[in-house]
Write a structure and sequence with these properties.
elongated; mainly beta; eight-stranded antiparallel sheet
Length: 118
């Protein structure tokens, strides 16, 4: 009985949210691992699925919630840009029903994807 309580207690507060989107040029995934009310880890990728050769470099901006923004440049390697792994402690956790907006800019073009929870 005590073992069951310890196992269940160790899993409480852990939630994984996967948000995805796809367009004719890009496919993206953003994963949030929420450990408790104020701590989370984030990871994700952007993949080129368009016709022809992928761009060499992209600029991206990911907005999730009112306070969570990630942006930067990324080299497209094997049709993919990893958004890396990051974490925050004592941060504002986005609402579980909130989508994320990803803006991708490359070679004078711009595309916006709405990543939705699966």
């Amino acid at each position: 009985m005590i073992l069951t309580a310890l196992l269940l207690g160790g899993c409480m507060g852990l939630e994984e949210r996967i948000l995805r989107a796809e367009s004719s040029n890009w496919k993206a995934e953003y994963v949030l691992n929420i450990q408790n009310q104020r701590d989370m880890q984030m990871s994700g990728y952007i993949a080129w699925i368009g016709e022809g050769e992928p761009p060499e470099i992209i600029y991206y901006k990911l907005q999730h919630g009112l306070t969570s923004t990630s942006e930067g440049d990324g080299y497209v390697y094997e049709n993919r840009v990893n958004l890396g792994n990051s974490s925050c402690q004592n941060c504002a956790i986005p609402d579980k029903n909130q989508n994320a907006v990803l803006t991708i800019m490359w070679d004078g073009q711009e595309e916006e994807l709405v990543l939705e929870k699966e």
